Amino acid sequence: MIKRVLALLGVVCTFVPLSADIGPPIDIATRSRGAGRIVVARVADVRARFAANGFGDQLIVSTVVLEVAEALKGAPAGRVEVEVEGGTVGDLTLKVSDLPSLAIGERAVFFLDAGIGGTLRPHDRGRGILKLSQDDRVESTPVTLADLRQQVRDALRGGR
To answer: How does pLDDT run across 84-129, given as a tens digit for each residue?
Structure first.
């Protein structure tokens, strides 16, 4: 009996996908062309509040104030506000599995779109935020900020 259960478990594990993504990962060129704005910025402030989403569900939403260092696509601006699901209100925290949490001082490349009422939101949810390490690399990758800039420029010129 135990051998059958283990054999069945082995078969099931073989066919269970290892990723929750549907379809192939979206490359930087596709993100660049799809996003309305792309900025390199530092998180200056995070203000969380309760809000209702488009389905009427109550959740925590954070307004993230960004100090823009560089605009790679779209109008340059010194500061922009981005609305991101998740955050902490009092002692209640909402973590959204497909969105990174953002803290004051963190730097990232933000691919943004205007949502309802013009509110900026990450393009393609969590794929629209690429956090940067201290040495200007996209976290957990060998890709540098300089590489990313070039990929965005190439995509917007119609290359690669």
So the answer is: 999 999 999 999 999 999 999 999 999 999 987 889 999 998 899 9
Domain count within the chain = 1
> Using alpha carbons only, how large is the chain's radius of gyration in Å?
19
Please report, for the domain that includes residue 137, its CATH number.
Answer: 2.40.50.120
Q: Please, are residues 64 and 79 in contact by the beta-carbon 8 Å criterion?
A: no
Domain span at 131: 25-156
Identity (one letter) of the amino acid at 66? Answer: L
Candidates 58, 79, 52; CA nearest to 68 is: 79
Burial of 109 (0-12, 13-18, 19+ CB in 10 A): buried
Residue 14 lies in a domain: no
- pTM: predicted TM-score of the whole model, two decimal places: 0.81
